Amino acid sequence: MRRNLILAGRVREVLLNGHWIANTNFKNEILTVNWQQATQKVDNLNTIAALTYHINYYLAGLLNAFENGKLEISDKYSFDLPSISTESDWNKMVTDFISHSEKFADRVEQMEDRIFDQTFFEEKYGTFLRNIEGVIEHSYYHLGQISLIRKMILRNQN
Questions:
Q1: Which terminus of the chain is less hemmed in, N or C, by CB atoms within 10 Å?
Q2: What is the pLDDT at residue 75?
Q3: Is the pLDDT at 1 greater than 70, yes or no?
Q4: Tens of pLDDT along 29-64?
Q5: Cα separation of 128 and 108, whole Å?
């Protein structure tokens, strides 16, 4: 199987439809909370909304970089989520996240095999393969957090 298909499948698994590694995925987790739950603070942990914004920030930034050839995102802005004070605000964030996830997976699927070994915009970032695998690993890391935070919130509501 070609690397593009394997990687796109792994992106879809963590973000959109998988259950193999974590028995859940981002889309499933964020669709099962309302805006109050998504923004509810649990101890000193990030909120579900903050973690969703964080991953979406990178997906949107990478999609933009794929289009214009320039990587213009910065870690220091990756948690600068807008105010979420209504269900509509949360639904927009969820819709944007799902859209960017689908577009990112589609873009990876369309990549030619040779690109995965090429430099990812600047030498210091390594290869495309390393960075796409990084998106997958980073997403699983925060998916685990979201899953636990969601369970803590739901436990406290019962």
A1: C
A2: 96
A3: no
A4: 999 999 999 999 999 999 999 999 999 999 999 999
A5: 10
State yes or no: pLDDT of 20 exceeds 80: yes
What is d(CA 27, CA 128) in angstroms, rounded to the nearest whole number?
24
Q: Which two tokens stand for residue 12?
A: 């879809």
CB-based contacts of 141, cutoff 8 Å, min separation 6: none
Residues 6+ apart with CB under 8 A from 132: 7, 11, 108, 116
Contact 52, 38 (CB under 8 A): yes
d(CA 72, CA 138) in angstroms, rounded, equals 19
Residue 100 near residue 108 (C-beta atoms within 8 A): no
